[in-house]
Each structure stands twice: as C-alpha cells, then as structure tokens.
Amino acid sequence: MPSKPFWECVQRFVAHRTMQKVKSISAGLLLLLGFWCLGRAVETRLNRNPNILDQRETITAGLLLGLPAVTGGSWLLWDVRRQRRQQAEHRLRQIFFDLVQTHRGQVSPLQFAIAAQLNGDAANAYLRDRSVEFNATFEVDAAGNITYCFHLGTAQPPPIAPSVADDGPSFGPPHRPNNPAQ
Questions:
Q1: Per-residue pLDDT at 152 exceeds 90
Q2: What is the DSSP string of the chain?
Q3: Across all residues in the chain, what is the average pLDDT?
C-alpha cells in the first residue's frame, strides 16, 4: 500500500489541476458575459431609434456588468497562464539539476533537449542562460558540439586531523608525556 505522503501529493496535484480547469472555465464565462454586456451597451448606444425605452439604463447596466466581468475574466486567464509558465520553469529546472548531478556537471544541449523534450534552439538557450547564472564553462569538440561544464565544487571529504603518532602538524597543545621528573 502506498505511503500517506504519496497520496497527499496525488491529492494536491489533482486539486491543482482541477483548480486550473475551474479558473479557465470561469475566465471564459466571465469574458463571455462581459463582452455580451458591453456589446449590448454599444448596440443600444449606436441605435438611434427613438422608440427604444430605457436606453440610458441599458447602457449603464451593460457597462456596470460588462467591465468588471471582462476585468475579472482577464485576470483569471492571466493567472492561469502565469501558473503554467511557473510550472514549466520548475519542470525544466528540475530536469536541468538532475542532469547536472547524474552527468557530474557535464551537460550537452542534446542531452537536455531529449530529457526536457525541447527543440535544440530552446535547449541551447536554456543551457546558455544557466551557464551564465552558475558561471559555467564549456568545451567544444572537433565536430563543433558544445558541452557545458557546471562546476560542482569539491566532492572530496574534509581532511582528517593527523594523530599524535604522525610527524605531521599538530592542531593542539604539544604532546607531553606524563613524566613526574620534569
């Protein structure tokens, strides 16, 4: 049976996807209502027929309902797109870090394009931006292929302090044998 954190993650994912769909549908409905109300107000204003009763009220209602609906729908649509861009950026960043770790800092645009399912130009641009961000270098082979080298730092364990028996440097007070004659 899967662990509780797995199910919590699945529930968050489903809730997030559901919320995005609800926001998208709401944005569409608000935009539809808003443009319909604004269109009705414009149509009423352009109609010069003197038989139309309550022309002023129709225009006012169209504007009072239409403008907030269009504004709210536009904001919801913008928010959904912003969240999708953030998710895509997070996905690319995760793939990038995984590749850097598994290939010990050596990443080619082709490897990144395959892993992230991007075209070559987009993969190359992304790696070029990350190389500037992380101060990476690159190598070009005889065929002209570029490999970006991201420096991971030293992976060596810290040096161990030498023991008393070593003739190396000591990091404490000098060793004095227990000799009561001294």
A1: no
A2: ---HHHHHHHHHHHHHHHHHHHHHHHHHHHHHHHHHHHHHHHHHHH---TT-SSHHHHHHHHHHHHHHHHHHHHHHHHHHHHHHHHHHHHHHHHHHHHHHHHTTTEE-HHHHHHHHT--HHHHHHHHHHHHHHTT-EEEE-TT--EEEE------SPPPPPP-TTSSS--SSSPP----TT-
A3: 81
